[in-house]
Design a protein that fits this description.
This protein is of the alpha/beta class and 342 residues long. It has one domain: TIM Barrel (Alpha-Beta Barrel), CATH 3.20.20.140. Helix content is 42%, strand content 16%. Strands 4, 5, 6, 7, 10, 11 and 12 form a seven-stranded mixed sheet that branches. A four-stranded parallel sheet has the order 3-2-1-13. The chain has a two-stranded antiparallel ribbon with strand order 8-9. Helix 5 packs parallel to helix 6. The radius of gyration is 20 Å and the shape is globular.
Length: 342
């Protein structure tokens, strides 16, 4: 009898543990596929979704937000956006939500930068596509490239001033529709030589970008800005001190953690070597518990497609395990539910 009671207690304890982790919402991920033909697209996207669900179940992620990466060219082979997500993800709405703009809007911003002008026609096109993204069911705008270094032969370099006219317009539209904006930006406190990324397309010097970024964040306080990939640093400048200063100054600024031990500046990672949290990072999280999110940044794909980058989802899981249960609830459940209205 005592053995049976003990067995029931163990089972219940495991169930409670799994149930707690099964509620986590991961706010930044991608699907990877080659959309050469409709048949190939259907197969590869379906396989990518299946792969995502397997990983989500394995690591205790109840819901994942998918978004297009920031495409620079309108003609990119893999370019996709909310049309694809509406077609394939709406039937899985209990497990997935999606953002839009990396395929529809990010190329317009970078095209305008190259041309050096924002025409009335381009502005109308931008507004029309932003409205379409929301109408197609997106829970936010993303992913956008402000400072996006090339990290390898199949990667690309992108840079755009965060206070560009179209970014400010995007901020106003995000405020209008009450949805967040997700941006990718390496922190550059002052002009500096570009770190070695083994990629020839990077410039020799990368320019200071925080002044323009703060103008973008403060342009419309009703617009919620998510600066993604906190903890994944390539310039050595995305520090606890910088994060604290910006969060104190900008109440509409949020940050999502990306954990990777394989391709990041080790000094500004929140982990110690044993996967415990560094004291200064833990203090920062406790100081601003309602401003952080979890965003793995994995490219889910069919087994027929080669993996892009390290498998960061494992490190996200380790990060969750290093947090107290109340912080897991805050970062992994309460904050994304409130921000994305899930």
């Amino acid at each position: 009898m005592k053995k049976n009671i003990f067995l029931v207690m163990v089972i219940c304890s495991c169930f409670i543990c799994n149930e707690a982790f099964s509620q986590i919402i991961d706010v930044h991920n991608h699907l990877l596929f080659n959309n050469k033909t409709p048949q190939q697209e259907r197969f590869l996207v379906t396989e990518a979704i299946k792969a995502a669900l397997v990983d989500m179940d394995r690591y205790g992620i109840e819901k994942t937000i998918i978004m297009p990466p920031p495409y620079e060219e309108r003609t990119h082979q893999r370019l996709h956006d909310v049309d694809t997500y509406e077609k394939y993800l709406k039937s899985h709405s209990n497990r997935f939500a999606y953002m839009g703009g990396g395929g529809l809007l990010n190329p317009l911003i970078h095209d305008a930068i190259k041309r050096g002008v924002v025409t009335p026609q381009l502005k109308r096109e931008f507004e029309t596509k932003a409205k379409l993204i929301i109408e197609k069911g997106a829970v936010g705008f993303g992913e956008f490239a402000i400072e996006h270094p090339c990290l390898g032969p199949k990667h690309n370099y992108q840079a755009a001033p965060a206070d560009h006219e179209l970014f400010l317009l995007l901020s106003d539209m995000a405020a209008k529709y009450d949805v967040p904006i997700d941006v990718h930006m390496e922190a550059v406190v002052k002009d500096m030589p570009t770190p070695s990324f083994h990629c020839d397309s990077n410039p020799k010097i990368i320019k200071e970008n925080l002044t323009a970024f703060e103008k973008f964040v403060s342009h419309n306080r009703k617009a919620k800005i998510i600066w993604s990939h906190l903890g994944w640093d390539h310039t050595g400048e995305r520090t606890v001190a910088l994060t604290r200063r910006l969060l104190k100054k900008h109440p509409n600024l949020y940050m999502s953690f990306k954990l990777s031990l394989d391709d990041s500046d080790k000094e500004n990672m929140p982990f110690n070597n044993d996967y415990t949290l560094k004291k200064d990072w833990l203090e920062l999280i406790k100081e601003f518990p309602d401003r952080f999110l979890l965003g793995t940044d994995k490219f889910f794909r069919s087994a027929r497609i080669k993996q892009v980058g390290p498998d960061n989802i494992l490190y996200t899981h380790k990060f969750i395990k290093a947090l107290s249960s109340d912080l897991v609830q805050q970062l992994g459940i309460k904050n994304p539910k409130k921000l994305f209205k899930l």
